[in-house]
């Protein structure tokens, strides 16, 4: 550092670009208040009649939001149309389920292995898949989903449990805590997983890796010619995504006390996809918002039976076509207008576009 | 010939022709519109349920129900084009929007089928009943009909694409959309036509196949996955590829099933396709895209 540069900085400090310093757009106070509210919320809620129900909804929200965020990381930001997310969730769920159920491990120890095995599975799927593009990825990941389902139903007995999945897996026990007390601890555990996943994904999105991945999505040719290793970037993202998905899967197994093969049903994929699309595809907060909305909406729609699926399906199609940005940009603009520390507009987050391929012969 | 061999060949040819028929629709739409239609299975189900409705509720013979089902499937596909695909043609994010939209439509259709009918399995009578045996293997006449129909349709589609004005328009649009529109080819209308044709093919497959696998609101999903595999194996957008790959995969699956057991059939097919993608990433007849990297 020469003296010149120091003098120049002293006279007119160059302003960091907004996109280069995203942390400046998030105020410490907002994060602090949100954390405090989330920490205090269960103690308030248990005093209500339906409080326990609301806490379980929040736990569900935390788990689903982690999976939706991880999926959005590769699908929205990375432009990789992977449909293996539910399968990776199941891999994580089964891993710690089997460790506890068949080997008698402690759930808290077993859950640590869920993300590890999910990452290994992701490496297995990623190696043949991630060099390919668009539709090929859709197909191969759907194929993996289907294979995982078949294996879970017809596989060895300690995995398939005779075709229904694992039904009596030991749940998380916090000392001798029972009832509301235990629900609150479960809430904190889910919240912790959610917080870690959200923070890591946020950092990844704003890291050089994240920039490389959006560059690949928006202009593959240009990004590759600037020296970005496409396969390595995609693989890294895929494993990060699988890590948190597997963790969420492990948590969900010990929360529900089992994992059923119905997890592979198509509506599960649709639910997650709806969260991403409704919240905002390729945006940071979109999947979190979407997870909240879809879970909230489900509580009202569940009484409608099949109409629920019908409405969700049409809504998905409608939003994808007529409002591809989702709802997040609306919230984002409001935040930047009223709450952000600096009143400058954020960079526009354009919807991803992939190059065309193919042809008729 | 041994029973096993005959069974493997018969099953392979039958399912191969069916996969080919489903893949033909997918490949046409991909080639011309660049749309990965994940609602293809839903259109299959629409055709089958309409035919079921005509047969069981209106008590009409299957020969009348067949064209009605096919027409309904084509109409449904065209409606899908009007509402969810036409608005995003030419806009950025076309493939995202349409991919998700078709997933949404497919789930909506299966929900609607549960609401209108019920989740129980339905039976559609075969167009031709009866069967005969060759070395202890039952050969159904419906099966022969399915094989014949799909071969005939491949021929028809090939002739249509090669010799008619509309077919040439489809090929022109699929090769260079902008140049085609400069030659005053109505691009959007051509898209609609391709999607309707593909819908009709899926609907036909739905009506003809339902006597084999019973009909339920999700029964289009598996044929669609198989068709996707066939499409990719044969090369996206290639009509010849869909035909050849349909039979190759159908026979391969059937042989694995007969000689190694049903459980290995699907993993075997997936293994084959992964190998294929490593050795020939563009499929059997796919045209490699020009990439300067």
Describe the structure.
The complex is a heterodimer of chains A (361) and B (293). With 361 residues, chain A is an all-alpha fold. Helix content of chain A is 68%, strand content 1%. Chain A has helices at 3-11, 28-45, 51-77, 85-101, 107-110, 113-129, 134-154, 157-160, 179-205, 208-218, 220-225, 230-256, 266-279, 286-301, 306-322, 328-338, and strands at 165-166, 259-260. The termini of chain A are far apart. Mean pLDDT of chain A is 80; it is low at 5-9 and 354-359. Chain B is mostly helical. Chain B has a domain at 23-218. Chain B has helices spanning 3-33, 40-56, 62-85, 94-116, 141-163, 165-175, 177-182, 187-209, 221-234, 239-260, 265-279; strands spanning 131-134, 137-140. Chain B has a two-stranded antiparallel ribbon with strand order 1-2. In chain B, a hairpin with a 2-residue loop joins strand 1 (131-134) and strand 2. In chain B, helix 2 runs antiparallel to helix 3 and helix 6 (165-175) packs across helix 8. The mean pLDDT of chain B is 84. Chains A and B meet through helix 7, helix 11, helix 13 and helix 15 of A and helix 1, helix 4, helix 6, helix 9 and helix 10 of B.
Task: Report a brief summary of the structure.
Chain A has helices at residues 3-11, 28-45, 51-77, 85-101, 107-110, 113-129, 134-154, 157-160, 179-205, 208-218, 220-225, 230-256, 266-279, 286-301, 306-322, 328-338, and strands spanning 165-166, 259-260.
């Amino acid at each position: 550092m020469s003296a010149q540069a120091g003098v120049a900085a002293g006279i007119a400090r160059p302003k960091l670009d907004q996109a280069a310093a995203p942390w400046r757009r998030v105020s410490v106070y907002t994060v602090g208040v949100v954390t405090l509210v989330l920490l205090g919320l269960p103690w308030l809620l248990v005093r209500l009649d339906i409080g326990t129900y609301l806490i379980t909804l929040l736990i569900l929200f935390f788990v689903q939001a982690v999976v939706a965020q991880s999926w959005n990381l590769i699908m929205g930001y990375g432009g990789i149309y992977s449909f293996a997310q539910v399968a990776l969730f199941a891999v994580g769920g089964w891993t710690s389920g089997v460790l506890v159920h068949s080997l008698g491990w402690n759930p808290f120890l077993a859950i640590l292995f869920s993300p590890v095995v999910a990452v290994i599975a992701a490496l297995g799927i990623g190696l043949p898949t991630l060099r390919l593009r668009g539709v090929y990825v859709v197909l191969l990941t759907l194929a993996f989903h289907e294979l995982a389902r078949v294996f879970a139903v017809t596989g060895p007995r300690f995995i398939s449990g005779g075709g229904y999945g694992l039904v009596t897996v030991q749940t998380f026990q916090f000392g001798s805590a029972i009832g509301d007390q235990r629900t609150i601890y479960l809430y904190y555990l889910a919240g912790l997983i959610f917080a870690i996943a959200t923070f890591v994904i946020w950092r990844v999105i704003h890291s050089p890796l994240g920039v490389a991945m959006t560059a690949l999505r928006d202009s593959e040719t240009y990004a590759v010619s600037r020296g970005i290793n496409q396969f390595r970037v995609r693989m890294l993202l895929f494993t990060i995504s699988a890590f948190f998905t597997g963790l969420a899967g492990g948590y969900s197994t010990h929360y529900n006390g089992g994992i059923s093969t119905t997890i592979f049903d198509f509506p599960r994929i649709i639910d997650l996809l709806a969260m991403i699309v409704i919240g905002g595809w390729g945006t940071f907060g979109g999947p979190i918002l979407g997870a909240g909305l879809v879970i909230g909406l489900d509580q009202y729609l569940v009484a409608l039976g099949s109409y629920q699926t019908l409405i969700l399906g049409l809504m998905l199609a409608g939003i994808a076509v007529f409002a591809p940005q989702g709802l997040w940009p609306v919230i984002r603009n409001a935040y930047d207008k009223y709450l952000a520390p600096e009143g400058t507009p954020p960079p526009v987050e354009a919807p991803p576009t992939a190059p065309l391929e193919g042809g008729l012969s | 010939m041994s029973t096993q061999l005959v069974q493997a060949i018969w099953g392979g040819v039958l399912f191969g022709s069916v996969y080919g028929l489903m893949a033909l629709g997918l490949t046409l739409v991909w080639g011309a519109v660049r749309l990965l239609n994940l609602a293809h299975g839903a259109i299959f189900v629409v055709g089958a349920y309409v035919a079921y409705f005509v047969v069981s509720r209106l008590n009409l013979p299957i020969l009348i129900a067949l064209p009605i089902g096919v027409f309904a499937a084509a109409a449904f596909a065209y409606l899908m084009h009007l509402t969810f695909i036409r608005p995003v043609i030419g806009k950025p994010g076309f493939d995202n929007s349409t991919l998700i939209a078709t997933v949404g439509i497919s789930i909506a259709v299966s929900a609607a089928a549960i609401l209108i009918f019920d989740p129980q399995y339905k039976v559609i009578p075969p167009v031709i009943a009866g069967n005969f045996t060759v070395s202890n293997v039952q050969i159904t006449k419906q099966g022969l009909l399915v094989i014949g129909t799909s071969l005939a349709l491949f021929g028809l589609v090939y002739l249509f694409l090669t010799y008619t004005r509309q077919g040439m328009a489809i090929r022109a649009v699929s090769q260079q959309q902008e140049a085609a529109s400069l030659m005053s080819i109505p691009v959007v209308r051509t898209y609609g036509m391709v999607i309707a044709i593909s819908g009709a093919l899926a609907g036909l497959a739905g009506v003809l196949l339902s006597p084999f696998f019973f009909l339920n609101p999700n029964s289009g999903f598996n044929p669609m996955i198989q068709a996707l595999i066939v499409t990719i194996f044969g090369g996206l957008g290639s009509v010849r590829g869909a035909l050849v790959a349909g039979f190759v995969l159908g026979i391969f699956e059937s042989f694995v099933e007969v000689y190694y057991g049903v459980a290995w059939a699907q993993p075997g097919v997936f293994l084959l396709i992964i190998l294929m993608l490593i050795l020939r990433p563009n499929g059997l007849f796919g045209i490699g895209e020009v990439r300067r990297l």
